[in-house]
């Protein structure tokens, strides 16, 4: 008898041949289902020939595996319809073994569809479709713990995608197909125990704010300090770019080369860098005024309270000269529209989602540098890879129905209750430990991304 190279109990190997790149195995099913898919009966079926199938299986010893099997065709006598018997080892929807379907799904978390298709001997589109079904199953089983401090951000991967974070635990909770208000609403409504959320950090995107206000009206919205503060550097950059119209190409090139020094805080400059910056500021008074405005704008986040922050901002706004009003207008508009939520940063929590910037930068590189990962694959790799998850043990009080003992009740009362009504249940309160998934741990993920297959 040929060696059972398949190691599949449901298929009996009759013969196999080996080539330089493939194994070809002839097998017969050890058992098959006789259940009629049309009427649901199985006791009145008779044989009706065979259907030759060409089934793919897991690569073995570096070679593709092909199984040749004749699937029984059956005739259901009650409904007079024919059908192909179901073989347990073979996937019902594809000419693949069930284990190969699962293997493709798991492998797609680490390798490109093209590489998997080449290894198995299938079309790349087929590998993609198999993974989509695998990811859908993972999604159905995916359970996330509702954060206390929620973060909503976005990343541009072809288009703007929503990124949901647990700010307190520094984890990624979910990635959304887009950042539309309807998508954010659907996500927020899917959260269990939304009453746990106390704060939500976000950038100045109206759709985020309106979605949170509609679903989580009790939550304090905090505009991320990172997004508001960097507007000072963006204003300074607008001034610099406007100046190049009056500068010689050589001076403009030098100023462009040192632009990152201009955006650094003054107290972060080295002595050498400070000399370079002061040289530019002394040479161009308008640039010097814009730089001073930028520095004083950043000082808003050095104060302690909302009242101090507002006073510092209003004093700063009053000093913007007319010739720089246009460059700094986005800041004044943002504060006029979002003032309440910007100032919420100065509460005790000091909520900021800025830690996701390193995540966004690495994911963009993985997406843009030809790794072959679609958004769906990136999302699955980030959310469903078990080694990346951050978990925590939580103690909870639960009510457990008490089992009533014979001696707890009198015979007369027990007999009466058995005849007339069920006794009122009694409960005990017990402490149980539950393991929660807090999301994808960001430090672990950042280290993992560098090793992803290119």
Structural write-up:
This protein has 454 residues and is of the alpha+beta class. Among the domains are: 1-90, no CATH class; 101-141, no CATH class; 225-346. The protein contains 16 helices and 12 strands. The strands form 2 sheets. The chain has a 7-stranded mixed β-sheet with strand order 10-9-6-7-8-12-11, with helices on both faces. Strands 1, 2, 3, 4 and 5 form a 5-stranded mixed β-sheet that branches. Strand 3 and strand 4 (63-76) form a beta hairpin. Helix 9 crosses helix 10 (285-298).
Can you describe this structure in just a few lines?
The protein has 454 residues and is an alpha+beta fold.
What does the main sheet amount to? 7 strands, mixed
Strand order of the largest sheet: 10-9-6-7-8-12-11
The N- to C-terminal Cα distance equals 44 Å
Order of helices and strands: EEEEEHHHEEEHEHEHHHHHHHHHEHEH
Number of helices: 16
Q: Rough shape?
A: elongated
Return the structural class: alpha+beta
Helix percent reads 40-55%
Number of strands: 12
Radius of gyration: 32 Å
Please specify the SSE layout and strand pairing:
Elements: E1 11-18, E2 22-29, E3 45-60, E4 63-76, E5 81-84, H1 98-107, H2 113-120, H3 124-141, E6 149-157, E7 159-166, E8 171-176, H4 181-190, E9 199-202, H5 206-215, E10 220-223, H6 225-243, H7 249-257, H8 259-263, H9 271-283, H10 285-298, H11 306-317, H12 325-343, H13 356-368, H14 375-384, E11 389-401, H15 411-420, E12 427-441, H16 442-449
Helix pairs in contact: 1-3, 2-3, 3-14, 4-5, 6-10, 6-12, 9-10, 13-16
């Amino acid at each position: 008898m040929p060696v059972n190279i398949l190691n599949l109990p449901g298929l009996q190997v009759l013969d196999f041949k080996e080539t330089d790149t493939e194994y070809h195995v002839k097998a017969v099913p050890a058992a098959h289902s006789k259940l009629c898919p049309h009427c649901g009966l199985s006791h009145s079926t008779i044989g009706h020939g065979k259907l030759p199938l060409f089934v793919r299986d897991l690569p073995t010893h570096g070679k593709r595996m092909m199984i040749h099997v004749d699937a029984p065709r059956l005739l259901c006598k009650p409904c007079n319809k024919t059908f192909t018997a179901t073989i347990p080892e073979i996937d019902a929807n594809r000419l693949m073994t069930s284990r190969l379907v699962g293997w493709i799904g798991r492998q797609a978390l680490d390798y490109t569809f093209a590489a998997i298709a080449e290894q198995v001997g299938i079309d790349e589109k087929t590998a993609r479709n198999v993974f989509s079904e695998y990811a859908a199953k993972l999604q159905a089983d995916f359970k996330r713990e509702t954060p206390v401090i929620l973060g909503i951000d976005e990343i541009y991967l072809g288009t703007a995608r929503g990124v949901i974070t647990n700010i307190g635990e520094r984890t990624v909770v979910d990635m959304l197909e887009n950042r539309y208000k309807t998508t954010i609403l659907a996500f927020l409504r899917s959260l269990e125990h939304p009453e746990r959320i106390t704060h939500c950090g976000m950038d100045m995107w109206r759709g985020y704010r309106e979605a949170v206000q509609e679903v989580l009206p009790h939550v304090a919205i905090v505009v991320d300090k990172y997004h508001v503060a960097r507007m000072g550097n963006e204003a300074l950059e607008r001034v610099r770019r406007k100046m190049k119209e009056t500068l010689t190409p050589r001076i403009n090139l030098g100023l462009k080369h040192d632009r990152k020094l201009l955006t650094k805080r003054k107290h972060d400059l080295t002595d050498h860098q400070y000399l370079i910056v002061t040289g530019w500021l002394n040479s161009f008074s308008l640039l010097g005024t814009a730089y001073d405005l930028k520095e004083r704008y950043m000082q808003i986040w050095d104060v302690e309270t909302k009242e101090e922050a507002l006073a510092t901002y209003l004093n700063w706004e009053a000093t913007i000269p007319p010739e720089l009003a246009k460059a700094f207008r986005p800041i004044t508009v943002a504060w006029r529209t979002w003032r309440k939520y910007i100032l919420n940063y100065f509460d005790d929590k000091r909520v900021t989602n800025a830690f996701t910037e390193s995540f966004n930068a690495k994911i963009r590189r993985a997406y843009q540098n030809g790794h072959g990962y679609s958004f769906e694959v990136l999302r699955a790799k980030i959310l469903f890879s078990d080694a990346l998850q951050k978990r925590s043990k939580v103690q909870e009080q639960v009510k457990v129905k008490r089992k009533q003992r014979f001696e707890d009740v009198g015979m007369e009362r027990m007999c009466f209750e058995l005849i007339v009504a069920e006794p009122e249940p009694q409960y005990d309160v017990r402490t149980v430990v539950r393991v929660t998934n807090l999301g994808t741990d960001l430090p672990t993920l950042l280290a993992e991304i560098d090793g992803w297959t290119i």
